[in-house]
Design the sequence.
């Protein structure tokens, strides 16, 4: 019977974003191990976690798991440190280090705001508890009081929403009416602490929260990729909180592998899917997918392409997941400052019988056997049609070399897992 390994996915919001990594892990280990997807961590078992450590609850699950629980962490992001300020993050290749300072400032203001609000609420609640009965007070405008207020109004009038804007307007109108009603009620009954509490809630909801949303929106709008950099910084912070609990690591990029070896004294293995050779197809089309970034928009506009493509569909979305494939895929890097190749993108194309084309220069050799390099001028109908058979022979030769490399790596990973099963996991559960 195959020994069980649990592939934990509960730290991610969307499983579709993990599709390629789940496929890689299942393909790589599936012949000798039973890889089972699980939303939660399984104690006293081997757990593989795909990189995402921004959630406090998930960090807590890892750090408070049983001592004999094994964690394998699949790294997906690049370790980076800003040149002058020496701030650690993931995927920060920009020269504008002030972005990181702004991110840290916003995060610290957020923590400060939460502490102040928590302190004020605790003071008010303590005063209230000493003066009122044990009846639970509503925490916000949408708890007990709002339900009572709505029920009272709906006896005489039930609004019908014709649009989302109207529904939002009615929602806020009800909040204002409830605020006025409770204010008058507490004033006439001389309940001073309740008046303070309701005024503070109103101020937080209608002033503090909107101002915060507007500031963040303006920052996101005017600084390219600010939201992405903030998210990556938070993920890096979370990773530092669990790194000591991880037994060993996997990754799908040599640059991550090299950087990790320099930073940490733990085992790491570089793995990628083995893939089948490409066959000839009549689907004469060149495709693109992924995030519709500013760089990729400019890249597409620079192509004087007279070959069938899915570019119009790509440009209409923020992130395109392909629903069809052709002979070729074009794979521009994410941003102008991006340094590394994207092997998972190329493997997805090959698995769907597409020849991955790359025109950018990268600082790594991770994917040399997974794409064909061309210059922009050679991406045209005449070249793509005339040399299609030659291109297939070239990429299949590279694929064969890639598969041999992965076969060698697999035996090392398998031996490592077998050792963990023998030494730490009782019964292979």
Sequence:
């Amino acid at each position: 019977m195959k020994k069980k390994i649990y592939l934990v996915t509960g730290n991610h919001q969307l499983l579709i974003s993990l599709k390629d990594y789940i496929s890689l892990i299942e393909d790589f280990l599936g012949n000798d191990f039973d890889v089972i997807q699980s939303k939660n961590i399984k104690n006293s078992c081997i757990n593989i976690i795909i990189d995402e450590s921004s959630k406090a609850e998930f960090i807590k699950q890892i750090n408070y798991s049983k001592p004999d629980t094994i964690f394998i962490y699949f790294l997906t992001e690049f370790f980076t440190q800003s040149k002058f300020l020496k701030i650690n993050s993931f995927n920060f290749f920009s020269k504008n280090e002030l972005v990181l300072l702004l991110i840290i400032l916003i995060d610290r203001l957020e923590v400060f705001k939460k502490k102040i609000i928590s302190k004020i609420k605790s003071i008010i609640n303590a005063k209230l508890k000493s003066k009122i009965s044990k009846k639970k007070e509503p925490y916000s405008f949408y708890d007990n009081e709002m339900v009572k207020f709505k029920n009272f109004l709906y006896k005489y009038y039930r609004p019908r929403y014709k649009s989302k804007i109207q529904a939002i307007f009615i929602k806020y109108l009800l909040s204002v009416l409830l605020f006025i009603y409770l204010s008058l009620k507490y004033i006439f009954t001389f309940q001073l602490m309740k008046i303070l509490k309701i005024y503070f809630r109103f101020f937080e909801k209608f002033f503090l929260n909107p101002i915060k949303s507007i500031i963040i929106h303006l920052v996101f709008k005017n600084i390219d990729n600010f939201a992405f950099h903030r998210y990556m910084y938070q993920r890096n912070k979370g990773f530092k909180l669990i790194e000591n609990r991880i037994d060993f690591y996997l990754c799908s990029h040599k640059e991550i592998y090299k950087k990790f070896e320099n930073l940490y004294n733990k085992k790491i293995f570089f793995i990628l899917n083995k893939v089948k050779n490409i066959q000839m197809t009549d689907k004469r089309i060149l495709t693109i997918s992924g995030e519709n970034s500013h760089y990729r928009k400019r890249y597409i506009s620079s192509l004087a392409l007279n070959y069938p493509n899915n570019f119009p569909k790509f440009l209409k979305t923020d992130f395109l997941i392909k629903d069809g494939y052709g002979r070729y895929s074009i794979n521009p890097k994410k941003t102008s400052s991006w340094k590394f190749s994207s092997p998972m993108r190329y493997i997805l194309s090959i698995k769907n019988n597409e020849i991955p084309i790359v025109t950018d220069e990268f600082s790594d050799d991770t994917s040399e056997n997974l794409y064909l390099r061309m210059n922009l001028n050679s991406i045209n109908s005449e070249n793509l049609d005339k040399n299609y058979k030659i291109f297939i022979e070239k990429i299949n030769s590279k694929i064969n070399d890639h598969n041999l490399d992965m076969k060698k790596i697999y035996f090392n990973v398998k031996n490592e897992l077998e050792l963990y099963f023998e030494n730490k996991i009782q019964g292979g559960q």
